[in-house]
Amino acid sequence: MAKIVFLGTGGWISSIERNESALLIETQGSNYLLDAGEATFKQIQKAKINFRKIKAIFVTHSHGDHVLGIPSVVLYRTFLTRHEIKIIYPNKIEKDIRNLMRYITTELTKNVRLCSFYAKEKETNAYEDKNVKISCIKSKHTSFSVAYKIVLKKERKTIVYSGDTSPTENLVKFGKNSDILIHEASLCNKYENFSFKVGHSTVNQAISEGLKCNVSMLVLVHLGKQKIKKRKFKVKNMTVFIPNDLETLYLK
Fold first, then answer.
1. CATH code linked to domain 3-243
2. Taking the model in full, what pTM does it have?
3. Residue 156: how many CA atoms within 13 Å on its side-chain side?
4. Over the chain, what is the mean pLDDT?
5. What are the residue boundaries of the structural domains of the chain, listed by start?
6. Strand (E) positions, the chain?
7. SS3 content of the chain, % helix, strand, coil (to 5)
8. Pairing relationship of beta strands 30-34 and 54-58 according to DSSP bridges
């Protein structure tokens, strides 16, 4: 059964219980990591995930709370197995990713393949194998950032991951009628006007985006210091789920 493991549900400024951004999708015996903030390596260990089965790491943008965990994950993965691992990212952050990788270049990292793609306002293919098809679009953040759409072929499920973004019609079109939208909710609702200046979303804005996308489930991540009273509730026909770190969502 496919599953999503929420390794880090916080962002740069979050409560102490929430690690920085990272989530992992497991399907058909392969693992796909989306973003890897600080301490992702330790979170993978805690979740008892098999490092050898991580095929690729997908990066939304180059802010530290999304990329600083990549080096330790890659080093340990290449130590365990010489099978290739891909790091996949938009071409606009090519320099940042290569600079990050410069500091861990060893004999082991010869099996790390850096793969950039041209991200646009329109949907662009980023990766495909026998298990998944992954595409992206440009999102709306303070630095160049993308959202990813992951189609699980056997399960016939579609997951959209917003990365960091303020509300944008582009993402609504991209995520329309998906099964699950994983959307950031960095800010309390009183900061709605401020959210557009910093390229983030409030909880209510994320819920509104989910309803516009007509998804079955909205998952809120990249949380700040909001006090969460209910972690699962309904808004119209949409289920809203707020996971804790290391929680797993099984895709039936």
1. 3.60.15.10
2. 0.96
3. 0
4. 94
5. 3-243
6. 3-8, 22-27, 30-34, 54-58, 85-90, 112-117, 124-128, 132-138, 146-152, 157-161, 180-184, 217-221, 232-235, 238-241, 247-250
7. 25, 35, 40
8. parallel
